[in-house]
Specification:
With about 180 residues, the protein is of the alpha/beta class. It has one domain. The protein contains 5 helices and 9 strands. The strands form 3 sheets. The chain has a 5-stranded mixed β-sheet, with helices on one face. A two-stranded antiparallel ribbon has the order 1-4. The chain is extended. It starts with a helix and ends with a strand.
Amino acid sequence: MWVNGFALRNEFVIKKVINLEQSRVYVTLKEMKSFLDKLKDSFQKNSYLPEFIFNCDETVVGSFKKRNTFVWLTPKDKNKTHRIFKKINIHTTLLVTISASGSHLPSLLITPRKTLVKSYLSTEITNDLCFTHGPKGWITNENFHDWVRDIFIPLITERRNDQNIPVLLVLDGHS
């Protein structure tokens, strides 16, 4: 292809584009530093065991729209290439929580429904996966708080075995 020759002659490389939502692009260095300072502070004040340090994050799953793959010509010294896109209005969200020791808690699957069909819930699946719903499939304060109250706290309480062991749950600040 002519593009490959052009890239070689002009010290460009062809890179696959990473799609990022607008809200993820505009995080500032000040915000990142503030988060890392708070995290460092927490580690200095508490003696966390790896099995009680949890990272919780959500991701979009099962997108039914086929996404186009884009490539960009970019200077060789530029590490990442991204394209900003608007939020997808309706999707399915998966909230995953993993500890620093490698163990995991049941994930939360949020489907874009007005009601949840009980026949979808088999006990073989529900030991590792919790289901909820919302009009657009986004995680909300309400379904996150329900997950913390009904899943996270009871499982952590059981793991702590009546010991006063500190627990850290790290999650992002998406609104």
